[in-house]
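Please decode residue identities from the backbone states below.
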């Protein structure tokens, strides 16, 4: 899922892989992804190593919990959410590193899971984004809701006759899913995010020059 300043006035989220889908690599972009290594590699190769990436906290938390005994899971959830709720990114990062130390004594695998892309779970805070917009864009739930509705629609077909039929049904399913789209919570602050992304891009370009 990627957001660009083209959507700031409508408060919408777009997805795609090229400038034909609204992803002009010359524009400041924010990428919100799950833990897929392939996605992360594609962003790095197409948009550069400095492209801002926000890792989905829902997926990250789920991955950590998979390594923990049930009697420690609720405590882990509470500690993670407390850290991520901090508006100051430095304080949040320090708290997350403390959680890594706590996890080491329970499950080294859980600790490694949190360490992996730890800083990328705080990208939005580093851009100065907080409140409702942070809650909206700190996970991939927005795009996954669309995928879920599309999958439900397409599941009605029991026999796909040819690839064109698949394309037609997918397009129809997306149009059906669009009817349920709502404004992103915190959309009034998208302009602030756009400005922060532009400033971040300018800074990185200056450092690279």
């Amino acid at each position: 899922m990627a957001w660009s300043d083209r959507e700031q006035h409508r408060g919408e989220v777009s997805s795609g892989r090229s400038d034909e889908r609204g992803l002009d690599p010359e524009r400041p972009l924010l990428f919100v992804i799950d833990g897929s290594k392939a996605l992360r590699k594609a962003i790095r190769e197409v948009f550069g190593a400095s492209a801002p990436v926000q890792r989905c906290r829902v997926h990250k938390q789920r991955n950590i919990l998979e390594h923990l005994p049930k009697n420690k899971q609720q405590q882990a959830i509470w500690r993670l959410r407390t850290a991520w709720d901090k508006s100051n990114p430095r304080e949040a990062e320090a708290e997350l590193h403390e959680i890594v130390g706590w996890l080491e004594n329970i499950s080294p695998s859980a600790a490694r899971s949190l360490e992996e892309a730890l800083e990328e779970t705080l990208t939005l805070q580093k851009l100065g984004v907080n409140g409702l917009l942070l809650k909206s864009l700190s996970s991939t739930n927005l795009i996954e809701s669309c995928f879920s509705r599309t999958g439900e629609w397409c599941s009605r077909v029991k026999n796909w006759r040819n690839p064109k039929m698949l394309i037609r049904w997918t397009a129809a399913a997306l149009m059906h899913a669009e009817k349920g789209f709502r404004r992103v919570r915190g959309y009034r602050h998208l302009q602030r995010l756009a400005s922060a992304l532009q400033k971040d891009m300018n800074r990185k370009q200056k450092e690279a020059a």
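Observation: The radius of gyration is 19 Å.
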